[in-house]
Specification:
Strand order of the largest sheet: 3-2-1-4-5-7-8
Oligomer: single chain
Distance between the termini: 60 Å
Radius of gyration: 23 Å
Shape: elongated
Strand content: 25-35%
Number of strands: 16
Helix content: 10-25%
Structural class: alpha/beta
Largest sheet: 7 strands, mixed
Order of helices and strands: EHEHEEEEHEEHHEEHEEEEEE
């Protein structure tokens, strides 16, 4: 049985531990930051599983076969002690950095996923061993993709990691391949303040920021943030110029249509102070959002 360290933090590390514990002898955990006061339950979990806390430097003095990293937010200094494998939430070789899947969606790429790769001196630039992709459908959000990734990590990744550590899988180099570095998104990025966006861009933002994973896609109305809990595209709406942000139609079903840069989008339901409201009760035709 291969002996490995886990590096990372929070629920992703807990889930990874549960997936790997039957196949590997897990020596302990390497944390990116000390956050005991803020996340006591995570440290309680480590204690309950008798998982010691180590550093990357400690690995030099402990016999082991490799380290598997997930949700680790510090730069890892490369050494030759043993292989370090990172579970990157994004599809390499293109999308590197934080919130890589979100940036893929912002760019109109509906297929997102995760990559198992070697940690190298180039951030997210090491050899690729395994990728899992999930195509988000029109009626889905990132929540559905995240569930699919979690399932694949649980069912398939343990055997892949074992094969990598046993030398049965050869990594694919990312050298000379084009890439994009993504930056971490913040809740404010999910607030629509400028409707001069293509309809597809608004739909993609909704996929990223919609609950339960996100903080909600929102708009600002008379100084109050309203969450857009339901929206949809409008079939047969022709490409056109106009005034982005203008309400162009109120519907009997309670929705309103708002002009975008290219077509229009239907706001089907809003949430204010935790209560669902119909946009047609709030806006009038010609009003600017």
């Amino acid at each position: 049985m291969k002996r490995i360290f886990l590096a990372g933090f929070g629920q992703p590390l807990i889930d990874l531990y549960e997936s790997l514990k039957g196949r590997f002898d897990i020596v302990g955990v390497i944390l990116d930051y000390e956050r005991r006061a803020k996340f006591p339950l995570f440290y309680d979990f480590l204690a309950s599983q008798k998982l010691g806390i180590y550093s990357f430097e400690d690995r030099k003095n402990i016999v082991h076969d490799g380290t598997v990293v997930i949700n680790y937010n510090k730069i890892i200094t490369i050494d030759q002690v043993s292989p370090v494998l990172n579970i990157h939430m994004g599809l390499l070789p293109v999308y590197r950095g934080n919130n890589a899947n979100a940036w893929a969606l912002l760019n109109g790429d509906r297929t997102v996923g995760y990559t198992l790769h070697e940690v190298s001196e180039v951030l997210d630039g090491g050899a690729i061993y395994y990728t899992f992709g999930y195509e988000i459908q029109d009626h889905e959000t990132y929540f559905h993709a995240k569930n699919a990734m979690s399932s694949d990590i649980k069912t398939k990744l343990p055997s892949v990691i074992q094969d990598v550590l046993e030398g049965k899988i050869t990594g694919t180099s990312q050298e000379n391949h084009g890439f994009i570095y993504a930056a971490k998104l913040i809740p404010e990025d999910g607030i629509i303040t400028n409707w001069n966006l293509e309809t597809s861009s608004i739909v993609n933002r909704n996929m990223i920021f919609s609950r339960p994973l996100g903080t909600g896609l929102k708009l600002l109305h008379e100084g109050t943030l309203l969450e857009i809990s339901k929206l949809s595209t409008i079939p047969n709406y022709l490409n056109s110029t106009g005034i982005p942000g203008a309400v162009v139609l109120k519907n009997t079903n309670g929705s309103v249509w708002v002009k975008t840069k290219d077509t229009a989008i239907s706001l089907d339901e809003l949430v204010k102070d935790g209560q669902a409201i119909q946009p047609a009760d709030l806006f009038k035709i010609g009003q600017r959002l």
